[in-house]
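Dear all,

This email documents one entry for the complex benchmark we are building for the journal club exercise. For each entry we list the sequence lines for every component of the assembly. Then comes the predicted three-dimensional structure of the complex as a token string, followed by one or two observations. Please use this as the template for your own entries, and keep the labels exactly as they appear.
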Amino acid sequence: MELLKIEHIEKYYGSRSSLTKAIDDISLTVNKGEFTAIMGASGSGKTTLLNVISTIDRVTAGRITLENTDITTLKGKELNKFRRSKLGFIFQDFNLLDTLTAYENIALALSIKKESAAQIEKRIKEVAQQLEITDVLNKYPYQMSGGQKQRVASARAIVTSPRLVLADEPTGALDSKSSKLLLERFNYLNKECGATILMVTHDSFTASYASRVIFIKDGKVFNEISKGDNTRKQFFDRIIDVVTLLGGDLSDAL
Amino acid sequence: MLFKLTLRNIRQSLRDYAIYFFTLIIGVSIFYLFNAIETQTSYLHVTNDTREMIKRLNQILAGTSVFVAVVLGLLIVYASRFLMKRRNREFALYLTLGMGKGGISLLLLVETIVIGIGSLAVGLLIGVGLSQLTSAYVSSLFEADMSTYEFVISGGAIVKTLIYFGIMYLVVMIFNTVMIGRRKLIDLMNAGKRSEKLRAANPAVCAVMFAISAAALALAYYFVGWRTKVLEPKHIIIFIIIGCASTYFLFRSVSGMLLRVFMSSKKLYFKGLNSFTFRQLSSKVGTMVFSLTLICLMLFVTICALCGAFTIRNSMNENLEKCCPADYQLGLSCAFYDEKNDSVYYNKIDVEKLLGDAGIDTDEYFEKYCVVTVYADEKYDTREYFGEYSSQLPEASDMMMGVEMGGVIENTMTLSDFNALMRVFGLPEESLADDEYIELANVNTDIAQRNIPLENGHEITVFGKKLRPKYKECVERTIQLSNVPVNYGVTVIPDGAADPEKAREYYLTAKYNTSDKDRKLEYDNDLLSDEIYNKLWAAIEEHDNGMGIASKQFLNITKMELAQANIGTKALATFLGLYIGVVFLITSGAILALRSLSDCADSLSRYDMLRKIGADERDITGSLFIQTILFFAFPLILALIHSVFGMKFAFYFLRQLGTTSMLPSTLMTGGIVLLIFGGYFVITYITSRLMIRNER
């Protein structure tokens, strides 16, 4: 079932005289329950793509539909409502509030949706178990490791049961061990909890955990591969092949 | 190049500097305003007595200016250091680019000079403008002629302001240079990355601390508010120290417990952005307990100073109208010593004739006048007046002590004398049955005490006659002209009851036959001249039958003179109250505003994050509003509680001035606090809202 449908979107920066096409006619669909990775070098437009999907930025042309809602036409309050009820965000630098404990950080996502305190407690217990962070719930961000922080941020993103979880370089600030742990959790969320995840990364290892990888170069879709029945290792090798083909910057980011 | 960089820096950080600059401007203009009073008053046409008073007033204001300069100086040093800290990263950048520490010091020097010159210029301009508005108030306060308006610029005040603020800015420069010189590059670079470590306060310790300081405060409140009479000056100092210390510990314990209190209600804490709001607030409060204490105490002093000053001014105005319903009074009471019998006797004096002999033609001056006699019956004293009700008198009151020491002789006057006096005063007359009396008094404490036997219909014996009270309470009248209530009790008895031999005091009271102010002043000069005084005195001495005067009470006063005597106190109270009050208000407002704004700047990324996870803009500004208003309200609330008891203490003394209601002064004080402190709040809130919105 189609969840997200992107049709011929374009995003231009700058003035008429010096135009930068960050996104140059991209179309793609994400189905419900999919774990999709978008790969590309720095400046390829992948972060811009994520920003327009997450309504943080606006497209210059084209349509983005999530569950039959055209999100490019949303404004002001509707936009905020859409963001907090339909989307979940995971950022490279975690974006946790350093003044709040892990529990409170997660709770914030629910409380701005005006959920009751009892409901909040129940939900947090659930997601804490799923992401294995129950023992750090009462710690402050500065008392946690990077991996723990990112899992707390992930818990915050999925605690509202969003239609779509958007992750922007989630492993960017993590060491390889923490990355692996986090991605395994992503897989768990995707397989066991049915979360739809759209992840932007330039790291092939990270991308290999997804079920589908879309490659972007110079604002255009360059290639797309699906995991199918491959093992993660095989999928990783196939990704490397495409990355080699892509050349340029991305090749040194294996 | 350096100058260009400086200007650009100031323009760049205008947001941070706006409040600082704003405060400097207010500080400069207030400083000028109060120092310009000296020049303003020198233009007024006033009597010599008033001139003398103005001179004293200006000396006191000049002394206060030194204190004010110290307070403002500390504020400026605090604010500039605070703003400097925010720019550590900027300085680190200059250092890594190869600028020397000397260069940065020079940069800051130029910055301070630019800001200093700017604030002095604008502040003085505003000060000069404001002083034109206030000059009307000043001259009305001194009851001077306002027919000729003059544009006054006080050169002296300008020079003084320049010197005082020049010194303050110099101190700031030295501070900045020393601070930059001592910091290492690595510290400057890492200055922005402070990790948010909340002091883990032990809740039990906080609770105990809270209980102890609240109890200490309650004790101080009780003694200051209810046991005022038994307090000695050294006790008062102890209670002030207790008050300050418990204020500090109260803030410390509350800041430690605040969050826990909020967290105890999950419904409240996990509602909307509340958890974020409370955390922000508690970290802000937790890191500035000392400043909050200082602000709270300053607000307390401000409220009491303003409220007290306005009360003094209002009651003095009221008092003059109430206690001085006529224009002129000559009062005499002459006790002569009879050596043969070793006793004091009072000689009958014809006051009217006395005045005529001195050369005053009553028809020439007075529209109406009368002479009343006050009698004294040795057997009718306070013991007789209170009878068995003396036991109900407040402990340790003057009245109680008088009764215990054997009674104080009471004053009496006849009904027809009383009515004659009331006709001069223009007040309603009274009537009495043969066995009735009326008690007069206008001092609040005495009225309350004297009402006790009246309520119970207590009968008294005066000159051998049994009388019962006509009314259940005192009639609030005076017989002596004055500017404060002085009637501690006079009994009005039926005409036939008084023994003429017991006449003790005489009062000639008159109303002038003109209402023109200048004519009245001429009359005053005639009636109060040294010549008349000497003649009156000589005439009195003739009555002594060669036996010498044992004691004399000689009263020769006019309403205008009484009003003049009020002016000095009124002006001093008003100016001092306003001066200190306004300076303290801007100081506390500025500290809170600076802290709020810098916290907001540090939290911009947090607000951005809230937006990313889909928080409504309305909820975000709501959170900011709650944070700002609670931060400002926190010290204000405690200051208000302090003030309630502080004013109760002050009221004890003001009551003797005849103060009955503090409502008008409370309202005026509230208005000024709201205007300045509220103004800082509004500016802070609007600026921080702009900051978080621009970030989008």
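Observations: The longest helix of chain A spans residues 176-192. Chain A has eight helices and ten strands.
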